UniProtKB/TrEMBL annotation:
NCBIfam families: AGP_acyltrn. It comes from Photobacterium halotolerans. The HXXXXD motif is essential for acyltransferase activity and may constitute the binding site for the phosphate moiety of the glycerol-3-phosphate. Residues 67-182 form the Phospholipid/glycerol acyltransferase domain. It is an enzyme of class 2 (transferase). SUPFAM superfamilies: Glycerol-3-phosphate (1)-acyltransferase. This is 1-acyl-sn-glycerol-3-phosphate acyltransferase.
């Protein structure tokens, strides 16, 4: 019964967001301010899923300006959890196939996000150049998932290097963002406990070149892996109370 009610609520939410969200975005199509606004509405739906969502943002991350944001990518619940950490003037980078996802895909495009073709390596690398150009020209931050795919309970997967090429190419910091594990969230369970999302302090890329990409990637992954362990332990303890 809980699953049916949630499915109805999410369906209604998707329809409302598509109609009113797309209408709102059409007033200034692909304006980067829309991503933050729409993402906050998605994060509010965490309560409907029985999740008590807690967001923490480092002061330095709020003040850093244009940057590359990297988050851990777990499952479809990311839409309602880590989405709450999308800061103002931040656009995301996703698969081109998202465009064909009913309702969500069209809204995703209208809000100004970047779509890339990951099946074509040359196009994907060309998009990194476009990401760099957008950061410089539009003074925006970009959000990327360096794992490249959903981890689905396997912990933090190895990182691909695109996000770090973009950060070094644009000469901007990397902002790591970590969401505690959601692999135990059950659609048919009333209380799914605490989920913590933390926006960490920026990692500087000053003086780095493309030769430093691997080192930067490993450093950021190590920071995020340690933070994920800490958040998981805290979220589990608080959810058990």
């Amino acid at each position: 019964m809980i699953a049916v009610l949630r499915l109805l609520a999410l369906t209604l939410f998707a329809i409302v967001m598509f109609v009113f969200g797309c209408g709102y975005c059409l007033l200034s199509p692909r304006n980067p301010k829309h991503v933050h606004t729409i993402a906050l509405y998605f994060a509010k739906m965490a309560r409907i899923l029985g999740i008590k969502l807690e967001l923490r943002v480092a002061d330095a991350a709020r003040e850093v300006g244009p940057s590359v944001h990297i988050g851990n990518h777990q499952n479809n619940y990311d839409l309602f959890t880590i989405s709450g950490a999308v800061l103002p003037r931040t656009v995301t980078v996703g698969k081109k196939s998202l465009l064909w996802m009913p309702l969500f895909g069209q809204l995703y495009w209208l809000t100004g996000n970047i779509l890339i073709d990951r099946a074509n390596r040359s196009k994907a690398m060309g998009t990194i150049g476009q990401v760099v150009a957008k950061i410089k020209e539009r003074k925006v931050s970009v959000w990327m998932f360096p794992e490249g795919t959903r981890s689905r309970g396997r912990g933090l997967l190895p990182f691909k290097t695109g996000a770090f090429h973009a950060a070094i190419g644009a000469g901007v910091p990397v902002v790591p963002i970590v969401c505690s594990s959601t692999d135990k969230v059950k659609f048919n369970r009333w209380n799914n406990g605490v989920v913590i999302v933390e926006v960490m302090p920026p990692v500087s890329t000053a003086g780095m070149t493309k030769e430093d990409v691997r080192e930067l990637s490993e450093h950021c992954r190590n920071l995020m892996a340690a933070k994920l362990d800490d958040l998981n332990a805290e979220a589990q303890a608080r959810s058990a109370k």
